[in-house]
């Protein structure tokens, strides 16, 4: 019976490259001359540190641009709160990986409401969709691509 998995994953190698590109851009920007500002990737989180909150906002925009250039959807960013320690402003940006339960239930409901003859089941942080026909599975993929989701979705492990 044909099936495929719906997942939401982030390619951390591409994130690392995007952070390095953003650091290079930070070094060349005129408005950051003489300012202690940096991007740091640690434990699957990007740590931004700068002297002012406005600079942090500019750095977030630079990082978003670098992520987009690397083909990473910026909807995976999970911004943390801005912490001020002395003269420095620090913010950590995490990445949403996997499909949480609320989104999974919403996707299952969306698939069932479409009246396509497939079964969707939640398996941890991914969804497995099975059906009798390959065309039905492709219809489900098209349906989910059309809809606007909170997270980017990838379809993998397609089996015939």
TrEMBL record:
<dbReference type="InterPro" id="IPR035571">
    <property type="entry name" value="UPF0234-like_C"/>
</dbReference>
<dbReference type="InterPro" id="IPR007551">
    <property type="entry name" value="YajQ/Smlt4090-like"/>
</dbReference>
<dbReference type="Pfam" id="PF04461">
    <property type="entry name" value="YajQ"/>
</dbReference>
<dbReference type="InterPro" id="IPR036183">
    <property type="entry name" value="YajQ-like_sf"/>
</dbReference>
<dbReference type="GO" id="GO:0000166">
    <property type="term" value="F:nucleotide binding"/>
</dbReference>
<keyword id="KW-0547">Nucleotide-binding</keyword>
<comment type="function">
    <text>Nucleotide-binding protein.</text>
</comment>
<dbReference type="InterPro" id="IPR035570">
    <property type="entry name" value="UPF0234_N"/>
</dbReference>
<protein>
    <recommendedName>
        <fullName>Nucleotide-binding protein BFR47_09750</fullName>
    </recommendedName>
</protein>
<dbReference type="GO" id="GO:0005829">
    <property type="term" value="C:cytosol"/>
</dbReference>
<comment type="similarity">
    <text>Belongs to the YajQ family.</text>
</comment>
